[in-house]
Amino acid sequence: MMNRRQFLSTTVAAAATLVHAPSAFAQMSYELIIKGGRVIDPSVGLDATRDVAIAGGKIAAVEPNITAGAADTIDARGKIVAPGLIDIHTHAGRSKEGPPICLQDGVTCWVDAGSGGADNMDEVAAVARGAPQIGRCLVNIARTGIAPGGELHDLSRANVDLARGAIARNRDVVIGVKARMSNNIAGANDLEALRRAQAAAGDLPVMIHVGQNYSPLRSYLSLLKRGDIVTHIYAPAPNGLLDDKGKLIPEVLAARRRGIYFDFGNGIADHFDWATVEAATKQDFWPDTFSTDWNVMSRTTGVFDMPNVMSKLIMFGMPLSQTIAAATCNAARIFPSFDDRGTLNVGAPADVAILELRDGNFEFLDNYKSTRTGKQRLFPAGTVFAGKKTPPRA
Ligand SMILES: [Zn+2]
Predict the structure, then answer these.
(1) How far is the CA of 113 from the centre of ligand 1 (A)?
(2) Which of 3, 82, 255, 299 makes the best surface tag, with the fewest CB within 10 Å?
(3) Distance 324 CA to ligand 1 centre (A)
(4) Ligand 1 mean position to 37 CA, how many Å?
(5) Could you tell me if 314 and 376 are in contact, meaning their C-beta atoms sit under 8 angstroms apart?
(6) CA 293–ligand 1 middle distance (angstroms)
(7) At a CB cut-off of 8 Å and minimum separation 6, what does 313 contact?
(8) Span from the CA of 297 to the centroid of ligand 1 (angstroms)
(9) Residues 6+ positions from 11 with CB-CB distance below 8 Å
(10) If you measure from the C-alpha of residue 276 to the centroid of ligand 1, how many angstroms do you get, rounded to a whole number?
(11) CA–CA distance, 123 with 259 (Å, rounded to integer)
């Protein structure tokens, strides 16, 4: 039995041990230290020169000048050290070759948005499970997935029970539903297809692809719930986010206020033009999230990589920290699968994107073969996923 005095002295001793624990720990070696970079972590409001120490696949410390030893170090002086990038609209699930490529771009979490429908979801889900980073999928409400000529002209393909079955079979990786609304994909079936996407999704997020729609954008927004996502937000008319006079329609701001997310969605054809980006951003309408609409061919298109896509909005004056927030913590907030990602907070999985912000003249491409020249471009300069280094792209 301990008397009170013994108990107190034990407690004091324990407290003393705790006080000394950090320096004792500092004697130990970390697995990896990323030294001297400009750490931009919007999840904790940090933008400062810091070292990032990693142990056990997790962020162990973010401090100025960590002196402890490490098995490995990365010299990040002159570079940006950000949380791993989260690309919420890709087609990385189409083949197993895709995910390792975008990992080199700093993308540590991706979402394949509707490549697969009920008929082929299992193949896409298998690619997601085998990816070297976190891969997740949205099941297309059309059972065929994305189909040439448009998957929703035949409304019978939008089968709620089949979509639910595909979700149930792949609950570990399927985290929502995708529906493509454009006139050339759905025609007049758009609204009914979206109602069915909501029925299949239940509480899961629905992402809608918009642009040159049959119905006005406001009619889709009225069918979205909190946490749903609109991708290709800067798609030009008809039926985009601007009215005939170039003014933002009020329903877009109302939708944002009730918790609907607006995603950039670069892609290749008809998803954005500079004039719409300029008009919308001048009215202070910026994307909540960035996405590439990436596939293995993206190197040869105007997409190139996620940091390049982010650079396009930097050209229009989006602040760097807000740009990085859109590619990290904002995206993490949408999907529960990414709850502990998009941050360099101590204890989080050590997913890190090392980026270089270069000054110069850089040409960026919209979806109508029109270029604009920006003064800065972000380049991928290294990726760490779950504490493990990925060699940068050659
Ligand atoms: Zn897409």
Answers:
(1) 6
(2) 3
(3) 21
(4) 33
(5) yes
(6) 5
(7) 264, 277, 281, 286, 287, 290, 323, 326
(8) 13
(9) none
(10) 19
(11) 32
Comparing C-alpha atoms, which of 33, 37, 39 is closest to residue 66? 33
Enter the tokens of residue 291.
């996405």
Please identify which residue in the block is written with the tokens 């699968």.
337
Question: Is the confidence at residue 12, as pLDDT, over 50?
Answer: no
Residues with CB under 5 A from ligand 1 (ion): 293
Question: What is the 317 CA–ligand 1 centroid distance (Å)?
Answer: 26
User: Which tens digit of pLDDT belongs to each residue from 114-172?
Assistant: 999 999 999 999 999 999 999 999 999 999 999 999 999 999 999 999 999 999 999 99
Q: Provide the terminal-to-terminal Cα distance of the chain, rounded to the nearest Å.
A: 66
Tokens of 30: 């970390």
Are 54 and 31 in contact, with CB atoms under 8 Å apart?
A: yes
Quote the ligand 1 centre to 91 CA distance (angstroms): 6
| pLDDT for res 266 | 97
Distance CA 277, CA 377 (A): 18
In the sheet that holds 134-140, the strands lie side by side as 85-90, 107-113, 134-140, 174-180, 206-209, 229-231, 261-263
Ligand 1: centre distance to CA 284 (Å): 25
At 1, is the secondary structure helix, strand, or coil? coil
Q: Compute the distance from residue 167 Cα to the ligand 1 centre, in Å.
A: 19
CA of 278 to the centre of ligand 1 (A): 22
Q: Which residues contact 282 (CB under 8 A, 6 or more apart)?
A: none
Answer for the pair 181, 240: CB distance below 8 angstroms, yes or no.
no
Phi and psi for 305 in degrees, rounded to 5? -155, 170
Dist. CA 199 → ligand 1 center (Å): 21
Q: Give me the residue label for tokens 């170039």.
A: 246
- Between the CA of 263 and the centroid of ligand 1 the distance, in Å, is 11
